[in-house]
Structure formats: structure tokens, C-alpha cells
Amino acid sequence: MTKPRPTLLKSLFMVGEAEPSALFAAADALVIDETQLDEESEGRFSGFLDRLAVLIDPADTDHLAETLALAVKRGVAGVILAPRCRMVDVQKADVLLSASEAAQGLTLGATRIIANVGDFADSLLAAGRMAGASARLLALAGSGHQLAQSLNIESGAAPLTVARGLVVLTAASAGVWALAEADESLSGAAFEKACLQDCADGYCGKFVTSPEQVDTANRVFGNA
To answer: What structural domains and CATH numbers belong to the chain?
Structure first.
């Protein structure tokens, strides 16, 4: 039996360094990069730790353990392994997070993982193994934007349709959510159309970059 999926993530706001909290208060999750884990930024997100996730590059092996330990120390809700993530990266992050949680006296498994698998051929084609990678896995992300650029193909080309389908199917088999990537250049009706297409393709939510996009994503994916 497939395990029940966790709380729906309709909008994941990618927060810039100077944006006030009022801009991202309506988002289901807030996404920061590791440079925003410093003490100066800690107070800024103190009221949002239960929905705060930090972007971490799993390929940065020299600093991976240190960065994950800092994320746990700061009390974030989760980490996003991007831009490319494989099963072994999730497993390694799981072990390192467990060590950091134990050191901080936290419940093991409290820090969740979102894995970006949908924008590189190697991680995408290996994504089927993600189902048993970690109990921490919350969602799989990727909708083919960077893949299109690397292959020099249009957005509606067959490889991208396959890639998006693999992300959604793999997430479903793992009992987690599928998240679409941000469309930074879109707004208004164009962004809503993109959200509707993501929703129709099986995604549950989307990374967003503005308050307007938050409102649209919450409405579109909330009505799915």
C-alpha cells in the first residue's frame, strides 16, 4: 500500500535576501539558499521555521555535512537538494541529517528532504529508485526547464513531456508530492496558464518568485 502523502505544498516562495516577511507570509513554504543561514538572517525567519527550506547542492561534498548541520542547528523544516539529485545523494543527506539531529537532541527524521530530479538526464533516468531512498523524502521537483536548455529543444518537445511524466510518476510511486519549477519570467494570465498546465500534468505545487505568483499558485493548486 502506498503511504499517505504529507501536507500539500501549493507554493514555495524563493525568498531574496532583502524581501520583508509580509511578501512571503501567504506561501506554503519559504525557500532560501545556504548563504541566508547566517545569524543575521536567523531573526528574519524566526516565525517561519516550520515552513522554511534551504537549497543545498549535494555535489558540494566538501561542505555538505557542514551545511546540513547548520540547517539543523538553525531549525529549518527541510532541505532541497538541487540542482541535481540522485538516490545516493538523498541517502547521504539522510545519514548526515540524522547525525546532526542527534547532536542537537532533536527527533530523528524531523528535517525533511525535497529532491530535484527533473532537469538532468542522469538524475531523471535514475529517479525510479527514489521510492525507498529515505523516509524524510517530502517531494520530488523538476519540470524540465534546464533540460530544455541543455538539449536545445522547445518547451513542448517530447523529451520534456517524458521528463515531466517521470517526475510525477516517480513521486506518486514514492507517496510524495511532485513540484514544478519556478517560471520567473511569467506573470498574470501567462503564469496562471503555466500553473494550470502543471496541475493538469500531475504536479501538486510550484516554486514561485513573487507575491502575485504565490496567490495564483495557491488558488490554482488549491482548487485541483
So the answer is: 11-222 (3.20.20.60)
